[in-house]
Design brief:
Layout (H helix, E strand, L loop, with lengths): L8 H14 L3 H17 L7 H5 L9 H17 L4 H22 L4 H11 L5 H15 L7
Helix pairs in contact: 1-2, 4-5, 4-7, 5-6, 6-7
Length: about 150
């Protein structure tokens, strides 16, 4: 039985890259990124140093004020229903994970950081949970803001 001709790396990765660009919100994009990483690791992407490979999937630590601003935007998007429920869930999740990482990096242990840690560790995010969390986040970020 003849061996199949080897398929180039670009023929394997470029379709995933195109799919990533078409993904409209966070959840499908994360799944595709995970699939791409699995594919690359199977193709011999072991040339990366261990430290670089270890941080690929972790939340990046933004400066604390930037993480707070991103969290505020995500909370407002949830309350305004600015997108599909799954996209809002992804947006709020990513913002809270980023805020939690920024709090850790900055050494912050304030109520906002504690809420981010608790909410990010929760499972089964219903729309009611997201609404409540968004309202609590906004109350901590901007106490002078009128409540809905």
């Amino acid at each position: 039985m003849p061996e199949a001709a080897p398929v180039s790396l670009s023929r394997r990765v470029l379709p995933l890259h195109a799919a990533l660009r078409r993904a409209s919100c966070g959840a499908p994009r994360r799944a595709l990124v995970g699939a791409a990483l699995v594919l690359l690791s199977g193709l011999g992407a072991f040339a990366l140093p261990r430290a670089a490979a270890a941080v690929v999937g972790g939340a990046r630590s933004k400066p604390y004020p930037e993480a707070v601003a991103s969290t505020k935007l995500a909370a407002l998007a949830v309350l305004d229903r600015d997108g599909a429920e799954s996209c809002l869930r992804g947006k709020l999740t990513n913002a809270l994970l980023g805020l939690s990482a920024s709090c850790e990096a900055a050494g912050e242990r304030n109520p906002l950081c504690q809420l981010a840690d608790r909410a990010a560790a929760s499972t089964g995010w219903s729309i009611a949970f997201m609404d409540t969390t968004a309202q609590q986040l906004l109350a901590l970020i901007d106490p002078a803001r009128p409540r809905p």
